[in-house]
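Same chain as my last thread, 176 residues:
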Amino acid sequence: MPILIALIGMGITAYFWMNRVKRGTEIAGELMDAAGDVKNAARRFGFRRRANQHPVEGIDDPKLAIGGLAVAFLEMDDLPTTDARAQMDISMRKHLNLDADTAQEIAILGRWFVEECHGPVQAFPRLAKKLHKMDGASYFDDLMAILNDMTHTSAGGPSTRQSEALSDLARVFRLK
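reply #2:
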């Protein structure tokens, strides 16, 4: 009887570890797919990471900077919902005259820029400075329209961090 219980225990343990290993390979595959999405989006926009330079400094297209700013602004809210992400996508398509695939790729690259800056709080001012340096104020109205659309969909307006980010944006563009 004790041998039978030991065999059942070993079988359960083996089953448990087999499932963990299987799930680990699935997670690794998903991470590889995510990395591929970022590479494909970057390739489509002609973005190249330069040695000894932060990725944000390599942005040449103002729409990429605006996409990064929109993602950072959205992620400053505690837990952005799927509806909030969809609203960001719709707003970027509308104000930047993009098709659905392009808007999605800009959002993917924007998310990557935010991660490279170690979070939305650090990414927002860095991306705002890059946009201002790169394009001046010609895309500012489009950016504000996107951020305005995003704040109107959330209940209660912008969060505290989002309000601080808007103040930083005004300071970068010298509006105050």
